[in-house]
Amino acid sequence: LTVQNFVTPATGIAVLYALIRGFTRVKGKGVGNFWADLTRSTLYVLIPLSLAGALIIASQGVPQTWKAAESVELMEPVAFDSDGNYLEGAGIDGDTVTVDGKVVEDAEVVTEEIVPLGFAASQIAIKQLGTNGGGYYGVNSAHPLENPNWFSNLLEMLFLLLVPVALCFSFGRDVKDKKQGIAVFMAMFLMLIAAMSVTAVNEQSASTALTENQYVDTSTDGQAGGNMEGKEARFGIGSSVTWATWTTAASNGSVNSMHDSYTPLGGMIPMLLMELGEVVFGGVGCGLYGMLGFAILTVFIAGLMVGRTPEYLGKKIEPYEMKWAVLVCLATPIAILVFSGIAAAVPQVADSLNNTGAHGFSEMLYAYSSAGGNNGSAFAGFGADTPFLNLTLGGAMLLARFLPITGILAIAGSMVQKKKLAVTAGTLSTSNGMFVFLLIVIVLLIGALSFFPALALGPIAEFFG
Length: 465
Known about the structure:
Elements: H1 2-24, H2 34-58, E1 69-80, E2 91-93, E3 96-99, E4 102-103, E5 108-116, H3 120-129, H4 150-174, H5 178-205, H6 208-211, H7 236-249, H8 264-275, H9 286-306, E6 311-312, E7 315-316, H10 319-344, H11 357-372, H12 387-415, H13 433-457, H14 459-464
Antiparallel strand pairs: 1-5, 2-3, 3-4, 6-7
Helix pairs in contact: 1-2, 1-9, 1-12, 2-3, 3-4, 4-5, 4-7, 5-7, 5-8, 5-13, 7-8, 8-11, 9-10, 9-13, 10-11, 10-12, 10-13, 11-12
């Protein structure tokens, strides 16, 4: 697992740099050596960052030790009956347990707890920096040992986007036009801000079911307010929403709150970020090369609008590249929609749902969106514990991961053989505000057209229900 945590992001960087060489080399015969790129990415980027990251979060209390576990004394003993049920409000005097003044026979008093330890900090550092996701502990980064305080929470969130953001500027440097990298960064950044805003507003205002419940206080007077179900009180709504949007934008999947407890529209945005192909920064390498696939699609559509042969970074975009670019952009939607559509028609899938109706459908759709986006987060009420679900979720992972890689390498191999075209007055600028706007529109247009019917059956129906 540790090897895979490093090799996976290094593979994304290697594929990205194959595409960059396709744009920068003129009439070349190759796009680099995969093993060399994999080795460089691991040795010079991922290992140094992970070492530094592990040391920093270990200083905040994240375990990093040879000890597998430690037995510690509880501050207050607790009691359980003979069937293992926790006795709330029990009075404990030595081995005698009373509830409402009555002695509970055969009750067991627990005074110690086993705390799992091990090499947590080193695993957490690379699972965040490599956008791998998962968690060392069962409840992921909501666990107090995996994420002890506000500072560790901030660091682990920054780790999510550190390398994907840096690669935008690396792209601009390596194509010898920093404005190109800034333009792609701005498109991603603006979509991320919009996603965070929509999620934050919905979580802070809470759903009607909560605001009309007389037993639930959603006011902000002296407390976090809003929808705090499934969220850590020490992080509140702001940090929880930030993590939720960043982890689904960055193809990571680690969580510090439970997405299944989000409001309908608040939960829809993380789902949509995955369904867009996780190109809003996305995973290490794969987010940027996915967005460059959309950039190729954008210049082609813009070229049709103005009656010019489309070009990107001085290379002509022809039918061969367009076919592969369409596959890159549609591989994730196809994998998610086909497999989730099949699953919706299989009766046994309903037994894995924690909820019925629109939210139950959202649980299933989120599972396939997470698998198709190689994310790993979940609407945790969905129990994907049948052979059918395991096989189809695995199939979605494979298709949505390897089809885009195949398409990007095909585009890179074609582009590297082409000559550079001179920039003229009619050349479409791919580094100005207009191109950023067009790129965002194309990404959202494909996402909206592909997923609106499915989202209408799930979170949108739940919102209006």
